[in-house]
Amino acid sequence: MIEDCIYKDVCRQKDCSTNCIRYLEISYLLDKSNIPKARQCRHKMIPEDCDVDAFDRLADIQHNILDFVNNDGSLYLYSYNCGNGKTTWSVKLLLQYFNEIWSGNGFRRRGLFINVPTFLSKSKEVIARPDTKFEELRTAIPNVDLVVFDDISVARLSDYDYTTLLNLIDQRVFNCKSTVYTGNVEPKELEKVVGYRLASRIAQGHIIELKGLDMRNGRFTDNQ
Description:
Layout: H1 21-31, H2 52-63, H3 65-70, E1 74-78, H4 86-101, E2 111-115, H5 116-128, H6 132-140, E3 146-150, H7 159-174, E4 178-183, H8 187-194, H9 196-202, E5 206-209
Parallel strand pairs: 1-4, 1-5, 2-3, 3-4
Helix pairs in contact: 2-4, 8-9
């Protein structure tokens, strides 16, 4: 069995090889997704009692991910607490989309994971030191089917950061693309952190709050 295949625990193929079209397509989608390697797998979680309803709503979006993406879906997933599943859930949604569209994809980039603080920091760095790979990533953001903007509201934005994000998100809205945002402030506080125009775009669709405590070293189960 191919060790880096995300389907290795569920695949029933008798002849497993790197020539498998599912392996090749999924590997391409993951390689082009900017999802950190450590998160390119099917993480499993058990919700605390306070988050059962939120997990059910997220599972519904996950199970209907094609409808979510095809209908320009938008989700703001937030929590005041860290480590309780915001990023993990956003990646699960992206992986589910890849799982639905790999067949016949033809090696096209379809989704991206963008950690906003890291992205904005890199955007400033490349002004002095151009980076072809980063420019390719930034150019792809307005056009891929699904983008996760992770940690979009962790700190107040500078004018440069605000303009950079607004330009990219406005292009996605104009192109009728689907977007997932994660953050740590409730919708009514977004404007104070990211400005009115960005706040209105981030909070225009599904809004789900996670209330549980840090579970990064806690309980896990299959929630596919």
